[in-house]
Design goal:
One of its GO terms (biological process) is protein maturation. The protein is of the alpha+beta class and 348 residues long. The protein has 2 domains: 111 residues, 60s Ribosomal Protein L30, Chain: A (2-Layer Sandwich); 187 residues, Phosphoribosyl-aminoimidazole Synthetase, Chain A, domain 2. The strands form 2 sheets. A 7-stranded mixed sheet has the order 7-9-6-10-8-11-12, with helices on both faces. A 5-stranded mixed sheet has the order 1-2-5-3-4. Helix 4 links the parallel strand 3 and strand 4. Helix 3 packs parallel to helix 4, helix 3 runs parallel beside helix 8 and helix 5 packs across helix 10. The longest helix has 18 residues.
Length: 348
């Protein structure tokens, strides 16, 4: 009967990460016997890191990131996401391994350009490259970059996605949608150049380094945060859900307090995208009992931060906007996927 029910539910999946229902049924359930005894950083859809090695005082943490796209600096975005994920667990990244898969029609020059970008950012961030590989693969239409990053943390500094507590404030660091905006510019630069002045797009390009927020999280880690959650695929709405779901708590946040740059709003309007569901590496949610103190501490370091709400007991996840109350939905597919779908439809 169980197998018949599963066959009845079997259907094709949307682009992006799978739903929580699919993850629990087809991923977590299948490895249940293999994860017994793992208490901290336990595998879940909300937890992005895992313990790779452990000594009496220090822990080596790892994380994996896979991104698809046509940008020559796609690897930079993957590395930023990995570095930020490690930093959110209290670890400092020290090295990566990278694997690049290219469609069979890609030229060697694309591979070389991608590796140059990866090499330069690793040198800038003090990261060693332990392993690098590249393949030309049948059946894919865009490049795929997979990055595994390793970092080290002291045991007493370790945080998990489920560490957030009820009754504390939620601080948003930096701006939502920045990563997605930069990647849209790379995919749709010609179309945007027809609508915006060169200075507009160049100003955004100058913001690329903002996708690395390890410094902000290092500061926060010294100032009493309960949990930190980088905002990645699915945007801030997905991140809020994941943070609350992982900790088993509720939340109440105000939409108008979520910081978003005007450039992101205008780029999203061109393609009818929702910036609140747009991948946002560089932006971070922080949960702390001292929101105002943390906000001012970060601002003194030149890091934008705003209190957007608070965590609550129970499971209600509320968003206030325009004087109206609504409940946070389960994570939706990232809006960036629509850009690739548009390109596929044009090329079909």
């Amino acid at each position: 009967m169980e197998r018949m029910a599963e066959q009845k539910e079997d259907k094709s999946m949307k682009a992006g990460r799978v739903s929580q229902t699919v993850y629990r049924r087809s991923v977590l359930k299948q490895i249940q016997n293999n994860i017994e005894g793992i208490d901290f950083l336990r595998p879940s859809q909300e937890e992005t890191c895992y313990i790779a090695d452990e000594s009496e005082e220090r822990i080596t943490i790892a994380t994996d990131v896979s991104l698809a796209g046509n940008e020559k600096d796609l690897g930079v975005f993957a590395i930023a996401q990995a570095v930020d994920q490690l930093a959110s667990r209290g670890a400092r990244a020290y090295g990566i391994s990278v694997r690049i898969m290219l469609p069979t029609f890609a030229y060697e020059s694309r591979l070389k350009a991608m590796m140059v970008e990866i090499s330069e950012i690793c040198k800038e961030k003090g990261l060693r490259v332990f392993f690098a590989d590249a393949q030309s693969v049948n059946g894919i239409q865009t490049s795929i970059v997979h990055v595994t990053a390793h970092g080290e943390a002291k045991k007493e500094q370790l945080l998990a996605s489920r560490s957030a507590k009820a009754g504390e404030e939620i601080v948003l660091v930096k701006w939502i949608g920045m990563e997605g905006t930069l990647r849209i510019i790379r995919e749709e630069g010609a179309a945007l150049a027809e609508r915006f002045a060169p200075g507009f797009l160049n100003k955004l390009e100058d913001m690329r380094d903002e996708i690395f927020s390890d410094r902000a999280m290092e500061i926060a880690g010294r100032n009493g945060v309960s949990a930190m959650h980088p905002i990645g695929e699915g945007g801030i709405l997905a991140a809020l859900w994941d943070m609350a779901e992982g900790a088993g708590i509720g939340l109440s946040v105000e939409m108008k307090k979520m910081t978003v740059r005007q450039e992101t709003i205008e780029v999203c309007e061109v393609f009818h995208l929702n910036p609140y569901q747009l991948t946002s590496t560089g932006a971070v949610l922080m949960v702390t009992p001292k929101g105002e103190e943390l906000k001012e501490r970060l601002k003194r370091e030149g890091i934008p931060a705003e209190i957007i709400g608070h965590t609550t007991e129970g499971n209600e996840r509320i968003i206030w906007g325009g004087g109206e109350k609504r409940f946070l939905d389960r994570p939706a597919p990232d809006e960036l996927a629509r850009i690739y779908e548009m390109k596929e439809n044009v090329n079909a």
